[in-house]
Amino acid sequence: MRIIATFILFIFSSYAAALNFGSPFQSEPEFLPVDQAFSLSVNSDDTGQVWATWQIADGYYLYRHQLSVDSDSASNIRFKSIPKGEIKQDPYFGEVEVYHQQLKLPLEIDNPRPYQASFILTYQGCAERGLCYPPQSVPMSTEFPKLAVPVQENQTTTAQNIVPSEAEKVSSLISHSSFAQMLLVMFALGLMLSLTPCVLPMVPIVSAIVIGGKANGRTGLALSSVYVLGMAITYAALGALAGWFGAQMNLQAALQNPIVLLISATVFVILALAMFGAFELRLPAAIQTKVDQLTNRSQASTSKLLGIFIAGVLATLIVSPCVSAPLAGVILYISSTSDPVYGATALFSMGIGMGIPLLLVGAFGGKVLPKNGPWLDDIRKVMGFALLGLAAWLANRWLPESTHLIIWGGLSLSVAAYFLHRVFTQHSHPIRWFIALITVMVGFMEILGGATGGQSPLFPLKHLVLGSPSNNTSKTVPYYKTIGSLAELEQIQQQSTLPVVIDLYADWCISCKVTEEEIFKHPDILPMLRQVTFVKVDITDNSDENQALLKHFNLFGPPAMLYFDFKNQLIDKFSLIGEPTKEEVEMRLRALIDNKLG
Description:
Blueprint: H1 2-18, H2 34-37, E1 38-44, E2 50-56, E3 60-63, E4 68-70, E5 77-79, E6 86-90, E7 94-99, E8 102-109, E9 115-123, E10 125-127, E11 136-144, H3 149-161, H4 166-175, H5 179-193, H6 202-212, H7 218-245, H8 251-254, H9 258-275, H10 285-295, H11 299-319, H12 325-337, H13 340-365, H14 374-395, H15 401-425, H16 430-451, H17 462-465, H18 469-472, E12 481-483, H19 486-495, E13 500-505, H20 510-520, H21 526-529, E14 533-538, H22 544-552, E15 560-563, E16 576-577, H23 582-593
Parallel strand pairs: 12-14, 13-14
Antiparallel strand pairs: 1-2, 2-8, 3-7, 3-10, 4-9, 5-8, 6-7, 9-11, 13-15, 15-16
């Protein structure tokens, strides 16, 4: 009986296993076909946006890093944006981003719409129970319709509400002026620009010319006039080049490479040594004789005038290559006229206006200075240190930032050493003592700031006063990336899900650094910069890639800001050429963030 019962139990268990009645010897789990696990469709919505949509079955997931679009070069279809997925520790790829339930990605195309396009969508997914499907490449075909009209009208209306930039205002003013009115406007603009950092570095040069030549009254005015003439003629040449070649002819940027800056810095060091009395600058005798025969001037006067004229040319091209907003507007208009004569006369008039304060320095500088004695010698040496400061300023454009404060500290201590030497060996005076003590303190603060990671010569110990580095991160400009080519910008635009704003920058651009410190770090601006993809475009090297990017956007130099909407389209009305104001930047950023252009 037991044998019969055992035999019946064996037969029953065998059938149960075969029929999968919950026996421990179950068959492998069943999995859905890949097209059912990941149901793919492509369609467009009412606005004309085309979407690729995956309906993902329960218990399955898609990999983010395996998503791609393949199309021919004629259509260039791509994902506009890919959202972040859930972090998963995957047995096949390690830590990855995945999607469950549904994934919906926008597609965009470069061709004019409507356009019938064929492309291939590639994806790969897995089942939670342990099956990983091979990568799938699915051919698709769909029409990319025109974008809905209301979106375009909304964008136009918003752009019209933005106040034009200073550059646009200046360009519009010149375009509606007669030739005579244009010259007056340009002269007035030059006077206004003379109060900006563009002209400030030229003051010690003119002062050194007047003091070095012991010029008074008419003589000082004549010498400074030669300098201003060299400056104005240089601007006229730049205006002619802008009218002939357009905005891409940026001679000043081309002259900011390290070799040219090193040569220029060396020239200012030599001029400083001459102010210190090390030697007297003269042309070679053979050249001087021929020049004297042509000009009937003495050797001293001819050498001096030629040197002053060259100093005006070099200072305009190298010492102060900034692009203020009014100057940007002028060059924009000149480049659109394609008229070299118009460009030359316009910028010559502007250069004369910029030189008026320098002429005043030349005319009255000698009158307020002592005629002779130890104080005149002190002032001459101070001008020599000012020229050394210009040389250091030029050199700092290509030296590492960590060395800048050390250089300024060393120069300040040199000034202190000179006046202490005068106090102990010549004449003791409260003014000399005061200058020596101030420059000693400044010098040690600069060196201490440089040694501890400071970067601002004006506030060398600011990073120490504010406290720990964690407290300073809020004042760091949130640049997404620093780039130098158009290809890098296009790659960022493809990856970004936010509107892109670019800041055109160069190490030699004074206005760029002022904008970064006073506008980008302002409490009203800084939070908004974190809500866009803020990109720094560094054209310090003026490489071929830099020039190609400038040409693509019709820019001639920094500073400049360009704004792109959510569709990566440049908003022309938002562009800021030249040093912007806080209000201009704030207004444009707010429009982007409020999705008014999306």
